[in-house]
Specification:
Low-confidence stretches: 154-158
Radius of gyration: 18 Å
Distance between the termini: 48 Å
Order of helices and strands: HHHHHHHHHHH
Number of strands: 0
Shape: elongated
Mean pLDDT: 92
Helix content: over 70%
Structural class: mainly alpha
Amino acid sequence: MRTLSAENAEGVAAHLAAAAILLEDDEDRALEHAEHAARRAGRVPAVREALGLVRYRRGEFTDALREFKTARRLSGSDHLLPYMVDCERGLGRYDRALDLAASPEAKRLAQDDAIELAIVVSGVRRDMGQPDAALIGLRIPALEKAGRQPDRKSTRLN
């Protein structure tokens, strides 16, 4: 939002905050705020991402995917790939979802995003009637490592 005037940045931030707050209880109003922010700052990646997340939450996968692609193009970041794959899944385009999940960009995701992607891909496989592949897809080093972490409560000294 550094590219915006201070006044505009403040207004856009207020609309983004309102969208985030309203998303739980009033998706229509959340969408209004996110769209307003996008009209004021459509070239700001975080704004397009927020609009995409509202549309994703509403199950508007075509529109959400368009916003995620725009945010990705503007930012150069691939952190939205799990959402993009899930949008393809929501549209029933399983082959596209799997192709995107297997892309070179997906292989470079940070650990948390890679875990999210593995969960989404597992869901794609389940939707395709491949329960064994869905389980195998969750056997990634990051998840296995997380499963081996000791419980802090059990290791704490009393």
